[in-house]
Design a protein that fits this description.
Radius of gyration: 20 Å
InterPro entries: VRR_NUC
Cofactor: Mg(2+)
Distance between the termini: 46 Å
Strand order of the largest sheet: 3-4-5-6
Protein name: VRR-NUC domain-containing protein
Pfam families: VRR_NUC (PF08774)
Helix content: 25-40%
Structural class: alpha+beta
Shape: globular
Largest sheet: 4 strands, mixed
Number of strands: 6
Number of domains: 1
Organism: Achromobacter seleniivolatilans
Number of helices: 10
């Protein structure tokens, strides 16, 4: 299956996050702010154009979710993540319970995350390098894997008239833990008209993905089956994140899950698995 290009576009996504995420920077040059709005609108228009592509590729998935609208998500719980696979920093030991948490729709989530890993949105970022005698400016590509995955989940939710069981980065009040609902009430509230996931309301909590029990009801904590923290390569788990989500879910460890991409995705095969399958062993080093 070919991976869709969910969004293309310039530096708007990263720039918007920098501008909107920092109050001091908001006041920086009115003309730059205006340009950001234009560029962000272009990105949003590109996302809208890609929705049809997402609808085509995920046609069977969307149809299935629509037919299951009245069924609890817990009915579809089957497998957990692979805590036997280590990717460094003892994540598989420290967060074993969250990794092994069984969550519904893991195949769908895995497909989206693997798309994002292979075909992430790329945006240029200007950097300055100091070399003896001068300072030069250059440009590097920043890969927005998490943003790409979230945009796909959001597009699917939109195609299902905001009744998907998978909610991308919904916001909750950091003090009362109340869900910040949009219109309709099953749609996450967004502040920006240009970039859906930034800025966030001050002090809010926003898990990468929330799976609701009943898809036709709001994503209040009482209706959440699991809050899922998604980690792509080189993005390490932070203890505070897991603690915050555990607090949000009323300290119910069964409602918090960790999904490392690709290690915990459905169908993942480690190098050791592939070698065993092919009858090959890693040669032993001589002493």
């Amino acid at each position: 299956m070919a991976a869709p290009v969910i969004a293309a576009g310039g530096a708007a996504a990263v720039r918007a996050m920098l501008v909107w995420g920092n109050r001091a920077f908001r006041a920086h040059r009115a003309n730059e702010a205006a340009q950001l709005a234009v560029e962000s609108a272009e990105v949003l228009a590109e996302i809208s154009k890609r929705k049809k592509e997402v609808e085509t590729v995920l046609k069977d998935v969307i149809k299935g979710l629509k037919e299951e609208i009245d069924i609890k998500s817990s009915t579809f719980v089957r497998t957990g993540g692979n805590a036997t696979v280590s990717r460094g920093r003892n994540e598989n030991v420290t967060y074993k319970h969250y990794i092994e948490r069984k969550i519904p729709f893991r195949p769908v989530i895995s497909t989206v995350c693997q798309w994002a890993l292979k075909s992430p949105i790329k945006v240029p970022r200007r950097i300055r390098k100091k070399i003896p005698g001068e300072v030069i400016e250059t440009t590097i590509d920043v890969l927005l894997k998490q943003t790409t995955a979230s945009l796909v989940f959001e597009a699917v939710d939109d195609l299902l008239e905001w009744q998907s069981p998978l909610k991308a980065e919904p916001n909750y009040n950091g003090t009362t833990y109340a869900a910040m609902l949009g219109e309709p009430s099953t749609r996450p509230q967004r502040i920006s008209d240009y970039f859906p996931f930034w800025p966030r309301p001050k002090g809010s909590l926003a898990p990468d993905l929330v799976i609701v029990e009943y898809r036709q009801k709001p994503f209040d904590v009482s209706n959440v089956f699991a809050a899922v923290e998604i980690k792509f390569p080189n993005d390490w788990v932070k203890k505070k994140q897991m603690t915050d989500y555990l607090r949000l879910m009323n300290k119910d460890t069964e409602k918090v899950a960790l999904l490392r991409v690709p290690e915990d995705c459905t169908g993942y095969k480690s190098d050791a698995d592939e070698k065993a399958k092919n009858g090959r062993q890693t040669p032993r080093r001589g002493k």
